[in-house]
Specification:
The chain is α/β, with parallel strands linked by helices. It contains 34 helices and 31 strands. It starts with 5 loop residues before the first helix and ends with a strand.
């Protein structure tokens, strides 16, 4: 039996902060309870110290007191009263707001206020008195039943555990400034599988076939399947990747496949320009497709819907080849339905299925072209190779001091090996003897070998033992943040920024050691990557992780921990969890059928402080959308959003984080100004084009995220923002429209990111000067990212006149019809990400930019919807000025790893010898490409991705592809991969 203490301690830390605030303002809220509040505060401080000791002893391997039923029950009582105290404090803040002492006629108004709030103040005081009594009883009960103080295995309390949990987490020392591209690595130990399976994929004798990859959870099935999918995907006309798991329905799976293979809109194509990894990630879960069908009628979701999906896929696949990867199939019946729904092709088709169960592979035995591959654990040498690879990825050192027993005990299972490697890398001070003790404690039955080469395979319980140990070793703060991952559905690609902003709103992250709260959250996230708890799956062009995923078995462990602590309640999805016996604190709704809706009807939702929904709002009972103390409300991508929902949201006065991204929201009501605690407002990709002026009352607002990045639809801000110099706490202002009266932003000195999607009626000199002066001024404070989309280009051209440019910019994007670059651009020594209009693609500009030593990614893009004559003239003149081709200089660009071009017509691009010595990825999106020369001069190039938007340029593009393939062949056989998407 194990104890979960991380989340309890985090909640207690939050409560004590709120108690301190309540004590400070006690006389303006509730009189006569100061003694009770102080007693509760002191009692909680003692309980918190106890929990810290318990966490330290548990992580250090102490078994004596920390695993008893009495201790576990007492901890549950601590957790429950902590939650109830926090509810009481939040409820008092919801009902009693207090008055400002500097207001006019304060004493008179305050007397009236005390009369009007007599009953709620009395009610809150009574609750505090009851909570004080409960705290006393918990302490007495502990003594009465002999729950003793925790002790180490040696009988004394001390620091000699060697674990990071004891010392806490040093965010400053764990900052990671390195930038890299997330890429598919060659799987370890599967070479013998890959050789045979590659022959199966490319064999033209069979027009169709299914490959079943069968094996234990964590053995590497998905790794092998994904490697095949990535390597041969571009040989097929269409490809799709979906995760099925335990409870996905057939409609959801087929809808997801259809969405990936059917023709995309222009905006979707633009979004997919991040490369083949982006395409892979589209299909990581069938869950999103299920959500899209939520809330529809039974007729639509039933047989008629299924028949229509089959018809659509048949028409689309009939004359096209396709490759489909169906991951983690649990049910033979479900697979049989999917197989029947995927039509044969007149060309050729390949389907790859991964499953833990042999029964799935034998469902339709004997069909021509089918093949089954059983994946077994790795051998000792392969295990060691994988361990060291993962160890160095986690920035470990001195791997020679790690005894071989550490990876041998993992039984050849890649999941266990990789997780253990992350654990070892994050504990560099442990000695070889200590690691041997860890192995002995995990597997007391020493002498029992595991895995291949005659050893006994690990059981699922033994794998869980390793994962649990690695999890328990983490610092308490990061352990709490990892529990939060259980909110997201299995297979879900989790946005880094979405996750870290929610951590901040929940109070799990705070400023420390001189770092901002955002920097600390990023450090925690990177530490989870080092620990191999999460895995990066998609990169951003700034070199940081954009999206991550959690392995099924790791997530299963985290969900169990979160449920045990009543930290998060998950309804639906892939987890068959019992309804909570106590109050629901954080709710994640991952299902949309009527049965799950009935489950929520039975729950006590009055104490919900965090609500996350995936799918349709119809799955939530109508009366349940009234949450008085909710602080985090995340409805991203939900359907069925109505006007009354926004009205209810505006009554959630304690709300800190509100995401309505990709919902049907059309307008925000004036009542939004009542949400005085709101810190993040995310209304991207909605129909909201203007904020009400009451938003300016939200003095704590930190992030305003609006507009649409793909379509460049912008969000208009209220004029009061400038007139009254409001919202000085803003750090991110993204997707906005700037009009004449809104150009003065000098008062936003905390601003870290400014993204202007539209400049309107800003032709007068005063507006130009105000905006330019604001950027210049804010550049001397915290401004790190600047995006300006200026269709007229008048303002962008005026930027060259800045006397003091924003020298600390890390990311810069300038879109318009600019030709010459601002002269100060070479002074941006910290700039790592630069995006420019393709009209600036000139040889002389590239020579100028080559001096930016920190530049990680460089993009030249064409954002205009139509190819106007002025733009085409500029492109032609640029080409002529460079003797018919654009030449990349042979020196400079010391850190550049990603280079992208996106334009209807790309001239000949020529790379000089020794050009871009660190470049790893080259992406070109075009309708016509005139030529690509000197690619062989790019020494570190790994991928060339050609994306053709117009079939008319197909012949020329294939000729360029063949020339590049011939040019980049290397003697060592490590030529870059050439990908052509049409």
């Amino acid at each position: 039996m194990e104890l979960v203490v991380g989340a309890s301690e985090a909640t207690m830390k939050s409560v004590m902060g709120k108690l301190g605030g309540l004590l400070a303002q006690e006389y303006t809220l509730i009189r006569g309870v100061n003694g009770d509040l102080q007693y509760i505060n002191d009692e909680l401080a003692s309980m918190q110290s106890f929990l810290r000791d318990l966490a330290t002893i548990s992580a250090g391997g102490g078994q004596a007191q920390s695993h008893g039923h009495r201790m576990k029950d007492w901890m549950k009582q601590i957790r429950d009263i902590t939650y109830d105290i926090e509810d009481c404090i939040d409820d008092s803040a919801h009902r009693l707001h207090g008055l400002r002492s500097d207001m006019y006629c304060y004493f008179l108004v305050n007397s009236v206020y005390e009369v009007l709030t007599w009953w709620p103040r009395r009610d809150v005081a009574a609750k505090i008195s009851v909570l004080k009594m409960r705290a006393q009883q918990i302490g007495e009960r502990r003594e009465r039943y002999g729950v003793n103080n925790p002790e180490t295995a040696g009988g004394t309390e001390g620091p000699h555990t060697g674990h990071s949990t004891t010392a806490g987490f040093d965010a400053a020392d764990n900052q990671d400034a390195s930038l890299q591209l997330v890429s598919m690595k060659d799987p370890v130990g599967v070479e013998h599988h890959m050789k045979e399976l590659e022959e199966w994929v490319t064999n033209d004798k069979n027009s169709c076939g299914v490959l079943y990859v069968v094996g234990f959870g964590g053995v590497g099935k998905t790794t092998i399947a994904t490697a095949l999918f990535t390597k041969f995907g571009d040989l097929f006309d269409h490809r799709a990747m979906v995760t099925v798991s335990q409870s996905s329905d057939i409609n959801a799976v087929l809808t997801n496949i259809k969405n990936q293979v059917m023709p995309q809109s222009s905006s979707q194509k633009q979004e997919g320009a991040d490369g083949i990894l982006g395409r892979l990630n589209q299909g990581a879960s069938a869950f999103a497709a299920k959500c899209c069908s939520a809330g529809t009628s039974e007729e639509t979701r039933g047989e008629t819907k299924l028949d229509q999906l089959k018809k659509d896929l048949k028409e689309h696949f009939d004359n096209n080849s396709y490759l489909v990867l169906i991951d983690d199939v649990w049910s033979a019946t479900t697979w049989d339905q999917i197989r029947k729904s995927l039509p044969p092709s007149k060309q050729r088709s390949r389907i790859i299925v991964t499953t833990r169960f042999q029964a799935v592979a034998t469902t339709r035995r004997g069909e021509e072209g089918d093949h089954t591959r059983k994946v077994v654990p790795l051998g000792i040498e392969e295990s060691e190779k994988l361990f060291k690879q993962a160890f160095f990825e986690s920035k470990g050192n001195k791997v020679d001091k790690v005894p071989k027993e550490v990876w041998k005990m993992c039984g050849g299972l890649p999941l266990a090996i990789v997780t253990m490697a992350g654990h070892v890398a994050c504990n560099p001070n442990k000695s070889e003897e200590e690691w041997l003790k860890v192995c002995k404690s995990l597997f007391p039955e020493s002498g029992k070998d595991h895995g291949k080469d005659g050893r006994k395979d690990l059981t699922q319980e033994e794998v869980g033992r390793i994962v649990s140990h690695c999890y328990n070793d983490m610092p308490a703060d990061i352990k709490t943040c990892s529990l939060y991952l259980s909110i997201f559905p299995k297979g879900q690609k989790i946005s880094t920024k979405r996750l870290t902003r929610r951590w901040i709103a929940e109070g799990f992250v705070a400023e420390k050691q001189g770092l901002s709260v955002e920097d600390v959250a990023e450090t925690y996230f990177n530490h989870l990557i080092r620990r191999k708890i999460i895995r990066p799956v998609e990169h951003s062009s700034n070199g940081k992780v954009k999206k991550c995923i959690v392995h099924d078995m790791v997530l299963e462990h985290i969900v169990a921990k979160a449920s045990e602590e009543n930290f998060i309640t998950v309804v639906g999805g892939n987890w068959l969890m019992q309804p909570p016996s106590s109050k629901v604190r954080r709710l994640s709704l991952q299902e949309s059928d009527s049965k799950r809706a009935n489950d929520t009807e039975k729950m006590n939702l009055s104490h919900v402080r965090s609500l996350t929904m995936f799918g349709s709002l119809n799955q939530l009972p109508s009366h349940s959308f009234k949450f008085g103390i909710v602080q985090v409300l995340d409805l991203e991508g939900c359907t069925g959003f109505k006007v009354h929902h926004t009205e209810e949201i505006c009554k959630m006065l304690l709300l800190k984080y509100l995401s309505l991204r990709r919902t049907d929201t059309k307008q925000l009501p004036k009542a939004i100004g009542k949400l005085e605690n709101l810190e993040t407002l995310d209304i991207r990709e909605t129909n909201v084009v203007e904020l009400p002026k009451t938003v300016c009352q939200l003095e704590r607002l930190v992030n305003i995220l609006g507009g649409d990045k793909r379509t460049r639809r912008a969000l208009k801000l209220p004029e009061e923002l400038n007139k009254k110099k409001k919202m000085k706490a803003l750090r991110i202002l993204s997707g906005i429209e700037i009009v004449g009266g809104l150009a003065d932003l000098h008062h936003l000195t905390e601003l870290r990111k400014l993204a202007i999607f539209k400049l309107s009626t800003i032709g007068d000199d005063a507006s130009f000067k105000d905006l330019s002066s604001s950027i210049e001024y804010l550049g001397g404070y915290a401004l790190h990212a600047l995006i300006i989309d200026d269709e007229s280009s008048k303002f962008i051209k005026s930027l060259d006149d800045m006397s003091s440019p924003p020298k600390f910019l890390v990311a810069l994007e300038l879109s318009g019809k600019m030709v010459q670059l601002p002269g100060w651009m070479t002074q941006l020594s910290a700039l790592s990400k630069l995006t420019l209009s393709v009209t600036a693609l000139r040889t002389d500009n590239l020579l100028l930019l080559s001096n930016l030593e920190a530049l990680f990614s460089l993009t030249f893009s064409f954002r205009a919807e139509k190819q106007d004559s002025e733009t085409m003239t500029i492109l032609a003149e640029n080409k002529l000025s460079s003797d018919g081709e654009i030449t990349v200089p042979g020196a400079g660009f010391k850190s550049l790893k990603l280079l992208r071009f996106c334009a209807p017509l790309l001239p000949v691009l020529s790379f000089s010898k020794n050009a871009m010595a660190e470049l790893e990825r080259l992406e070109l999106r075009f309708s016509m490409l005139e030529g690509l020369c000197g690619v062989e001069n790019l020494a570190e190039l790994k991928v060339v991705h050609l994306i053709l938007d117009d079939k008319d340029g197909e012949h020329m593009t294939k000729m360029v592809q063949r020339e590049v393939e011939g040019a980049v062949k290397r003697a060592d056989g490590k030529a870059p991969k050439i990908i052509l998407d049409q």
